[in-house]
Amino acid sequence: MGGAALATAIVAMMAVPPAMAQRQSAQEIRKQQVAEIPTCAKPLGTISVIEPEDGTNWWTGQQLPAPSKLIKVFINKSRCFTLVDRGVGMAAARGERDLAADGELRRGANIGKGQIKAADYVMVPDLIGANNNAGGNAISGLIGGLMGGDAGRLVGGLNFKKKTADVVLTVTDVRSSEQVAMAEGNAKKTDLGWGASGSLFTGSNWGGAGASGYANTEIGQVITLAYLQAYSNIIAQLGALPADASAANVSQALRVTKPARLLGNAKGTGAAVRSLDPGMLLYPTGSKEGMMWEVEDELGNKGWVNSTNTELAK
């Protein structure tokens, strides 16, 4: 090949890569973003994390910790929620409170009623299709999830042979029981080649959080990337949450404690809307004038009641 022809060939070869490089760069950026734990300037509220109720602890057979431990790492590092313990830590706290109630703790322990922080939301990590296996794979998936090995290569959204994971995270509002967000995540073995192993799993104190198995095994890293993608999507969905989840929700119901009347106005003038019997539930509208609260009964009647005749319904 002559010098001119060679130069032309080199120019032709260099003319194509920019578009390819641009596509690869966009893909690489997406993969790297998936491998980064999102951070928030301030918490979106308090949250607890619980395990799914599908009855199959698939993580046990793979010598992995419960997925809740993995999600708690994301929450702690992202600072997007204040994490409240509803597991072993809560059980230990209840033990201390029982000692306090029995008078066994020293004076000044400052343990009593009204101190436990409420969870605004509950997050549940699960597998896509975990409850949808109706064929033969359901049996092998169950055995594989509990025992590991070749007995079951597929459990819901996990394929241990191909090392792929399809997961889902759901967030439920504790007060209203509304499911305020759901996000899916998926990852495969080849995703580990985009620098995720170095940037995400090195020096991250996974062991201290009890989730070291996810950082130390290949399938664990794939599952981590899948849940991290779902968690990042969840945070994006929840960006418009109210700053005060408690105040933004409907007020807690009131229970009538003694015979009373539902009045037409806060001053108590005019005819009563109706009589109120002990045990009836009333729902505050949010309007108050001194000791008088505006409420609705279960039939939709609206009026005012003296708050001294009611208590918060538990």
The residue fraction in helices comes out at 25-40%
Q: How many strands, what sense, and barrel or not for the largest sheet?
A: 7 strands, mixed
- In total, how many domains does the architecture comprise? 2
Number of distinct helices: 10
Which sequence of SSEs, written as H and E, runs from N to C?
HHEHHEHEHEEEEHHHHEEEEEEE
How many individual β-strands?
14
**Distance separating the two termini:** 88 Å
- CA gyration radius, whole angstroms: 28 Å
* β-sheet strand percentage: 15-25%
What's the mean pLDDT score?
A: 76
Structural class, by secondary structure, is: alpha+beta
Show unreliable segments.
Answer: 5-22, 131-153
Identify the overall geometry.
Answer: elongated
What does this structure look like?
With 314 residues, the chain is of the alpha+beta class. It folds into 2 domains: 31-84 and 119-246; 250-312, Roll (SH3 type barrels). The chain is built from 10 helices and 14 strands. The longest helix has 20 residues, at 218-237. Residues 5-22 and 131-153 have low confidence and may be disordered.
Can you give me a brief rundown of this structure?
By secondary structure, this protein is an alpha+beta fold. The protein has ten helices and 14 strands.
Q: Tags for this entry?
A:
314 residues, alpha+beta, SH3 type barrels, 2 domains, seven-stranded mixed β-sheet, five-stranded antiparallel β-sheet, 34% helix
Topology:
Blueprint: H1 3-15, H2 17-34, E1 46-49, H3 58-61, H4 67-78, E2 82-83, H5 88-101, E3 121-127, H6 136-147, E4 154-155, E5 158-159, E6 164-173, E7 179-188, H7 196-201, H8 212-216, H9 218-237, H10 245-248, E8 254-256, E9 260-262, E10 274-276, E11 281-289, E12 292-296, E13 302-306, E14 310-312
Parallel strand pairs: 1-2, 1-3
Antiparallel strand pairs: 3-6, 4-5, 5-6, 6-7, 8-11, 8-14, 9-10, 11-12, 12-13
